[in-house]
Design brief:
This protein is α+β, with helices and mostly antiparallel strands and about 230 residues long. It has a single domain, classed as Fumarylacetoacetase-like, C-terminal domain (Fumarylacetoacetate hydrolase, domain 2). The protein has five helices and 18 strands. The protein has a six-stranded mixed sheet with strand order 4-3-15-8-9-12. The chain has a five-stranded mixed sheet with strand order 6-18-17-13-14, with no helix packed on it. A three-stranded antiparallel sheet has the order 10-7-16. Strand 17 and strand 18 form a beta hairpin. It is globular and about 40 Å long. The N and C termini lie far apart (about 40 Å). The structure holds manganese (II) ion.
């Protein structure tokens, strides 16, 4: 095959224990911890989950100690972090039953759903799409992927984020409004999931801004921590 321009390189995430996970799509769940829903000025009653996407090449591999950096993005004065558990799909499917969803998950990583909050809120309040607020370059840093064979399928455990060593977010996976299997089941009624898809499962309360030079560090119990500096 002759490409008329150079093809984009594959986006991959290193797997703890060896190998690389090739990323196909990035799905993200909105408003999935009640205290975060309230801090965003919304009602945390258990409405159906909703989704948005980030482009695949928004991934930045950022395990602790790796020295990863992301640029402060243009067009915002509110560059916000959202620490999240990320599920990686290893086996595709559609209309996946809740009780079989875990079998479709290859493993888990820690991710940060970086958000241009001012643009997201403006879009939300005007009924416009969220891409400018959510789907920009380097908006999806992630740590190493851990196979479920090693770490199981976490349903509880601490999830936290610090900026320059100070706590900003600290909660527990048991506060997810929609569990990971429920998310997978619902998402798979709208999209045929494929190996390589990632699902960001939502963030707890405490989201806030970072500025150039600040260091974010975060974790989910049992997984490699994430660490990334804003350039
Ligand atoms: Mn999020």
């Amino acid at each position: 095959m002759t490409f008329v321009i150079p093809p984009a390189s594959a986006t991959t995430i290193p797997v703890a224990g060896g190998g690389e996970f090739p990323v196909r799509r990035i799905y993200c769940v909105g408003r999935n911890y009640a205290a975060h829903v309230r801090e965003m000025g919304m009602d945390p009653s258990r409405e159906a989950p909703f989704f948005f996407c980030k482009p695949t090449d928004a991934i930045v591999v950022a395990p602790i100690g790796g020295g990863a950096r992301i640029a402060y993005p243009p067009g915002t004065e509110q560059f916000h972090f959202e620490i999240e558990l990320v599920a990686a799909i290893g086996m595709g499917g559609r209309n996946i039953p809740i009780e079989r969803a875990n079998a479709h998950i290859l493993g888990y990583a820690v991710g940060i759903d970086m958000t241009r909050r001012d643009l997201q809120i403006s879009a939300r309040d005007r009924g416009r799409p969220w891409e400018l607020g959510k789907s920009f370059d380097q908006s999806a840093p992630v740590s190493l992927l851990h196979p479920a064979n090693d770490v199981g399928h976490p349903t509880d455990g601490e999830i936290w984020l610090q900026v320059n060593g100070e706590d900003r977010q600290r909660s527990d996976l048991d506060k997810l409004i929609w569990s990971v299997p429920e998310i997978i089941a619902n998402l798979s009624t709208y999209f045929e999931l494929q190996p390589g898809d990632l699902v960001f499962t939502g963030t707890p309360e405490g989201v806030g801004p970072v500025r150039s030079g600040e260091l974010m560090r975060g974790g989910v119990a049992g997984l490699t921590e994430i660490e990334v500096r804003v350039a």
